[in-house]
């Protein structure tokens, strides 16, 4: 039996050792991980086949969804992508031990703000086993220790990938062996959530209920998003073609993504031009349409049912449509029912765009562009830890920087505060 | 009776209105607050006298300490400082709506990272009533709404200052009147801690037990420090004069401050030169000395008792001394028993200083300078929200920036992700 508190404690010790590990050493470990994942591809696929076989029964009994089953499945292409992801992280700049700024606060006293790792991070994720190598690599690059808990359906795949990573770490001298850790059961997660003495951040990646459960059951700061209820507001000054193209992309390009659109708000002045085109396009693309009563009355042949829950994240080819009388009504609706993830205005009037982007209180506020762009890779961060709807620490797509904090280094030469209080010395303004 | 959830809800509404308030308007409100505090000084002193009279009974019965009583007392000088504090905040740069960076992520697609307020912040503080105007002003300057809960001993002073602030806000057109709010009872605090739907950050300023209680009873992120167990390590290569001066300053200049030193670790190679001088100086300054057995055996005339709790924050003229055999032992001791606040090495060997500053996992790591410098004003931040020992969001002395987060604004022209997935378009590397 694993003792999770012991794991957390030795991860904390490893996190102190990690404070001095050089960029070169970290990159050496990452390259070893990539090389070994490549060498053991067949082992990974074999383990994954065991998981898939077990999952098939869960699929039949309805305990897991088809999309969860699909996420569990690792084919050669997915593994290649996973390995390339590790190699890409090698090429990113080291996010720690960077001087953010440096200044003299008084004659002879230098203050430096230096980026540094957070310490120990706990990451809880569901079916996707490729997350293990991604998160381990991001943790290593940012000099954090990590404790991973994967989905139980992926246990064999997770174990295999984890062992490859562990062996890669052991093969490199001077790299702390307890930097990457794994736990398996729900009980272990609950124990981990109590280890606030050792763990400084929890990142849950998965369903709303998972994230909400985590947030309610730990003193440790949690980084993540519970919901992705994204909106597109089609302003009265919208370009119809742009609106339709963007809505179709935002709904259909990958409907289960958290940044896909759930609700479209349409200004009443433009509805008669937009709706005939939009409804047809949505239907063509196999999207089920829920709407307010106005739209249902006028276009009953297109509308499946009355939208009665504006808080709903479909994560599927289903969309809610609603008429609004003003940009203010749209903004209020989004701030009330949205999840603070990503929301977009379609308009040719820049003043309206700026107003929308000022007042919508979301991590991403977009003008004339698909919500599907909300992504660390697309933002050019090179890697993504996840997407955050937090209002502290990190918001929106989180890159390597989100796994860092800073410390202040103060250099003096025997300086005492008493000399400043007495007026003998003064601070630089 | 106040309904705290209603207060939190209207504070949230105010926080949305605050998103568009200009720098000029915010500074106008702040100037009104300062002017009115000045005009009503006598009212504040009268209210404070009522609180002081009530507190005298608590002082006699031992329910509050002399230092809490002193913090409660507002004289003319303290009120002048409080008013100057508000005026100083007027002169600071506006921390929100600042473009942190801006870049093209693909042809025609611009991504901007813009600083913005957090939303609603709950601040819980103990006896010091001057905190009300300080925190209200910082919240206004950073466009956040705030809910304040002061110490019950200061209730009359708090009410008076709060009403002056409220009236100042009402006197300025277009400024949301619910930006600053106050609650009074412990029950109300407990309700506030459940309002995670509306409140995005809690800042407790007060005793360890207050901070620990808050952290254990809310899902809302908490910014603050529970303990200030600061260390000074006197390395074998230390300059004795610097060591003694810095230790005396760090212990005696203001012993109840969280950045005053609690434990001095002394390398065994230097103890015979350092201790005779240091112990005399500490005694001269009225400091009670606890120590390990080695020091007690040799200098029993100086030592009050054996130090048996290295986790202890004295907050008084009491100090713990301990001999260590190496810099590594010192680092390990600090990482084990410290609170991650501020820790200092005294040495003339830069290599040792860098090692210490790398491995000590604290918000402030100092070389040859008093721990008492850990302060937002001394760091040149112009104002201080508090000191944080968090490993996320903000660490160390927190200035106005700690009350901000950011949003991403993405500007396109009808762009869809499908074009990038198909390879028709590419992102800029």
Summarize the structure in short.
Chain A is an alpha/beta fold.
SSE layout and pairings?
Two copies of one chain form a homodimer.
Chain A lengths: L3 H14 L5 H17 L1 H21 L4 H7 L3 H15 L8 E8 L2 E9 L2 E6 L5 H11 L3 E5 L5 H16 L9 E4 L2 H9 L6 E5 L2 H9 L13 E5 L5 H13 L8 E7 L3 H14 L3 E4 L1 H6 L4 E4 L11 E7 L2 H11 L4 E5 L3 H10 L4 E6 L16 E3 L7 E3 L5 E12 L2 H4 L8
Parallel strand pairs in A: 3-4, 3-6, 4-5, 7-8, 7-12, 8-11, 9-10, 9-11, 12-13
Antiparallel strand pairs in A: 1-2, 2-16, 14-15
What descriptive keywords fit this protein?
homodimer; alpha/beta; Aldehyde Dehydrogenase, Chain A, domain 1; Aldehyde Dehydrogenase, Chain A, domain 2; 4-stranded parallel sheet; 16 strands; 22% strand; globular
Give an account of the 3D structure.
The structure is a homodimer of 429-residue chains. The first copy, chain A, is of the alpha/beta class. Helices cover 41% and strands 22% of the residues of chain A. In chain A, the strands form 4 sheets. A 7-stranded parallel beta sheet of chain A has the order 10-9-11-8-7-12-13, with helices on both faces. The mean pLDDT of chain A is 95. Chains A and B meet through α10, α14, β13, β16 and α15 of A and α10, α14, β13, β16 and α15 of B.
Tell me the strand order in the biggest sheet of chain A. Answer: 10-9-11-8-7-12-13
- Tell me the number of strands of chain A: 16
How many alpha or pi helices of chain A? 15
Would you state the CATH class of the largest domain in chain A? Alpha Beta
Largest interface: A-B, 74 and 74 residues
- Work out the helicity level of chain A: 40-55%
Strand content of chain A: 15-25%
As for the CATH topology of the largest domain in chain A, it is Aldehyde Dehydrogenase, Chain A, domain 1
Overall form of chain A? globular
Q: Summarize the biggest pleated sheet of chain A.
A: 7 strands, parallel
């Amino acid at each position: 039996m694993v003792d999770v508190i012991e794991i957390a404690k030795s991860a904390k010790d490893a996190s102190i050792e990690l404070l001095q590990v050089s960029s070169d050493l970290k990159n050496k470990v990452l390259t070893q991980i990539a090389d070994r994942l490549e060498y053991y591809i067949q082992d990974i696929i074999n383990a994954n086949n065991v998981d898939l076989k077990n999952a098939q029964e869960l699929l039949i009994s309805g305990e897991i969804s088809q999309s969860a089953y699909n996420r569990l499945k690792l084919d050669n292409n997915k593994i290649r992508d996973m390995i390339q992801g590790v190699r890409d992280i090698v090429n990113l700049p080291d996010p720690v031990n960077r001087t953010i700024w440096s200044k003299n606060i008084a004659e002879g006293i230098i203050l430096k703000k230096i980026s540094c790792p957070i310490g120990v991070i706990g990451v809880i994720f569901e079916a996707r086993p490729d997350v293990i190598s991604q998160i381990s690599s991001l943790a290593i690059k940012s000099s954090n220790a990590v404790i991973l808990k994967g989905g139980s359906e992926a246990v064999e795949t997770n174990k295999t990938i984890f062992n490859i990573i562990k062996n890669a770490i052991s093969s490199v001298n001077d790299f702390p062996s307890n930097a990457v850790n794994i736990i398996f059961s729900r009980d272990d997660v609950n124990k981990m959530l109590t280890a606030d003495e050792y763990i400084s951040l929890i990142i849950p990646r998965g369903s709303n209920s998972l994230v909400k459960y985590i947030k309610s059951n730990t003193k440790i700061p949690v980084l993540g998003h519970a919901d992705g209820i994204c909106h597109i507001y089609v302003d009265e000054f919208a370009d119809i073609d742009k609106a339709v193209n963007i809505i179709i992309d935002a709904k259909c390009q990958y409907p289960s993504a958290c940044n896909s659109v759930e609700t479209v708000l349409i200004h009443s002045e433009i509805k008669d031009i937009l709706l005939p085109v939009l409804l047809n396009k949505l239907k063509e693309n196999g999207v089920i349409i829920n709407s307010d009563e106005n739209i249902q009355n006028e276009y009953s042949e297109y509308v499946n049912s009355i939208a009665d829950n504006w808080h709903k994240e479909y994560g599927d080819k289903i969309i809610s449509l609603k008429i609004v009388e003003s940009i203010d009504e749209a903004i209020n609706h989004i701030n009330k029912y949205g999840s603070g993830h990503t929301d977009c205005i379609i308009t040719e009037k820049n003043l309206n765009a700026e107003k929308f982007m000022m007042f919508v209180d979301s991590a991403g506020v977009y003008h004339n562009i698909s919500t599907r762009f909300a992504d660390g890779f697309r933002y050019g961060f090179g890697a993504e830890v996840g997407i955050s709807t937090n209002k502290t620490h990190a918001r929106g797509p989180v890159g390597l920087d989100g796994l860092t904090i800073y410390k202040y280094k103060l250099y003096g030469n025997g300086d005492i505060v008493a000399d400043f209080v007495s007026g003998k010395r003064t601070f630089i303004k």
